[in-house]
Amino acid sequence: MENKLKSCSALVKIVSSLRDRKKRTVFTNGCFDILHVGHVAYLRRAKKLGDALIVGLNSDASVRAIKGKDRPINREADRAEILSALSFVDYVTIFSESNPEKLIRALKPDVLVKGSDWKISEIAGGDFVRSYGGRVSRIPFVKGHSTTSVIKKIKR
Questions:
Q1: Is the peptide bond before 140 cis (omega within 30 degrees of 0)?
Q2: What are the extents of the domains in the chain?
Q3: What is the value of pTM for the model shown?
Q4: Which among 22, 24, 104, 127 has most CB atoms closer than 10 A?
Q5: Are 147 and 34 in contact (CB under 8 A)?
Q6: Distance between CA atoms of residues 83 and 54, nearest Å
Q7: Residue 150, beta-bridge partner list
């Protein structure tokens, strides 16, 4: 199996090649700390919006800054490996910033996807993607599935 974990600079070249072949790239991002059926459904739907799905994965330090000192549960290398195992995920890249704006600006995806808990106006990189004719899409979550709820259940 091809290594799906790529640097930002490698992905810039890949996206350029895809664009030359008239393929649409879809970008989403997240912590994906404990992968569950909600994540799988979300990523599967995201892939259907284009030809190649790129997942920006928050680094361990980034997850800690966002979620608190007890997170992530799984380290970034493990989370990247698990995401890479999904057939509908084409590429994974790890970013250390608090949001993926820099990565989005480098990749210029055709479609930017986030969960429906995000307002369109609050999606990092959304204005930039729309500025060149790209699309911003929100995907509903699978009710009752979240990493936080899995962690709470384990603690009980």
A1: no
A2: 8-155
A3: 0.91
A4: 104
A5: yes
A6: 10
A7: none
Q: How far apart are CA 116 and CA 60, in angstroms?
A: 24
Strand order in the sheet with 111-115: 91-95, 52-58, 25-30, 111-115, 135-139
Say if CB 57 and CB 29 are below 8 A apart.
Answer: yes
Class of domain 8-155: alpha beta
| Token digits of residue 71 | 């997170």
Question: Mean of the per-residue pLDDT values for the chain?
Answer: 92
CA distance 23 to 90: 13
Q: What percent of the chain has pLDDT over 70?
A: 90
Residue in the block written with tokens 């990565």: 103
What's the angle, vertex CA 24, arms to CA 147 and CA 131, rounded to 5?
85
Q: In sequence order, what E strands does 33-110 have?
A: 52-58, 91-95
Tokens of 15: 């996206």
Q: Is 109 helix (H, G, I), strand (E, B) or coil?
A: coil
- In the numeric block, the tokens 């994965």 are attached to 57
